[in-house]
């Protein structure tokens, strides 16, 4: 592998509500140890994607580190769609689902060691309508819960827990999904239809045990109207989801139609209600640092 000479650190100062100075100082120290040059960019919420593109175009970085959550990683991935520089995650957001799926440890020193290491995975990405999806998007009850959570003042697992009953009370589930695949179509009812490029939600719930981020396929997960409260509680915890709850279909491309608009989210971000969803594996891969092949 090419020697690391230039490193870009992209920091979201407000993600996760935590101060990032300790992260910056530790990255600076470790980059100095390998005699590399470090450039630090802090996001502002104004034209960040274009500014990152310009920065990468102007300087041939060997590694790009991202200190933020899933939203920041998605922003950088969108900016780097035509760039092959490996990225690395320093999880520091309110949602760190991708880091969880990649097995990134919680210790900062270990995170930086992986970021400056040699293990690169060529990760699949999903294209859902006009949006990039890195690990999981879904239609239905979970997206409604995320919408309600975003308007709540209480964060973390307690915030999700407090929104569970109101979400169930006002939701119009079950939803009817018409799914068209390459070789067949079907219509089924359920409380949630997910598109998974990985195994887990950001909460740790293992919903797609056979999922791989680099196998060239994604999985459609249909959560049945079996025990709605139990399913919703399970999705909010670090646990395996019972096979009684979910039907799993591996595919490369799909279209979904809903009779009525249904709540929709990608990687923990609520994106409104949708009646039609088009999903496919992106032809482009995201080179990303991992401790081992996930």
Structure description:
This protein is α+β, with helices and mostly antiparallel strands and 294 residues long. Helices cover 28% and strands 33% of the residues. Strands 6, 7, 8, 9, 10, 11, 12, 13, 14 and 15 form a ten-stranded antiparallel β-sheet that branches. The protein has a four-stranded parallel β-sheet with strand order 2-1-3-4, sandwiched between helices. A two-stranded antiparallel ribbon has the order 5-16. Helix 2 crosses helix 3 and helix 7 runs antiparallel to helix 8. It is globular.
Which sequence of SSEs, written as H and E, runs from N to C? Answer: EHEHEHEHHEEEEHHEEEEHEEEE
Alpha-carbon distance between the termini? 20 Å
Q: What's the rounded overall pLDDT mean? A: 89
- Strands, total number: 16
Class per helix and strand makeup: alpha+beta
Percent strand equals 25-35%
Question: Radius of gyration from the CA trace?
Answer: 19 Å
Brief account:
With 294 residues, the protein is α+β, with helices and mostly antiparallel strands.
Question: Topology of this protein?
Answer:
Blueprint: E1 6-11, H1 21-33, E2 37-42, H2 48-58, E3 63-68, H3 70-79, E4 87-91, H4 97-102, H5 108-115, E5 120-123, E6 126-128, E7 131-133, E8 136-140, H6 141-150, H7 156-170, E9 175-180, E10 185-190, E11 192-196, E12 218-223, H8 228-235, E13 246-251, E14 253-266, E15 269-281, E16 286-289
Helix pairs in contact: 1-5, 2-3, 6-7, 7-8
């Amino acid at each position: 592998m090419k020697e690391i000479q230039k490193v870009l650190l992209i920091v979201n100062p407000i993600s996760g509500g935590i101060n990032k100075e300790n992260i910056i100082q530790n990255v600076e120290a470790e980059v100095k140890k390998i005699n590399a040059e470090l450039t630090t960019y802090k996001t502002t919420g104004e034209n960040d994607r274009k500014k990152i593109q310009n920065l990468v175009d102007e300087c041939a970085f060997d590694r790009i580190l991202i200190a933020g959550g899933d939203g920041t990683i998605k922003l950088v991935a969108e900016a780097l769609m035509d760039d092959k520089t490996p990225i690395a995650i320093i999880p520091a957001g309110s949602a760190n689902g991708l880091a969880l799926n990649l097995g990134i440890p919680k210790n900062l020193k270990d995170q930086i060691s992986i970021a400056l290491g040699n293990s690169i995975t060529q990760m699949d990405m999903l294209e859902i309508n006009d949006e990039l999806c890195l690990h999981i998007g879904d239609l239905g009850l979970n997206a409604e819960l995320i919408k309600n959570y975003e308007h709540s003042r209480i964060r973390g697992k307690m915030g999700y827990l407090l929104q569970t009953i109101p979400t169930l009370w006002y939701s119009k589930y079950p939803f009817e999904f018409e799914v068209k695949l390459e070789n067949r179509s079907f219509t089924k009812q359920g409380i949630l239809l997910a598109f998974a490029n990985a195994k887990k939600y950001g909460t740790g719930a293992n919903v797609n045990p056979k999922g791989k981020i680099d196998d060239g396929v994604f999985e459609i997960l249909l959560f049945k109207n079996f025990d709605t409260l139990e399913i919703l509680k399970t999705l909010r915890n670090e646990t395996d989801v019972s096979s009684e709850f979910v039907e799993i279909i591996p595919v490369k491309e799909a279209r979904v139609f809903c009779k009525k608009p249904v709540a929709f989210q990608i990687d923990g971000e609520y994106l409104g209600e949708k009646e039609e969803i088009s999903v496919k594996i992106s032809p482009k891969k995201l080179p990303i640092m991992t401790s081992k092949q996930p």
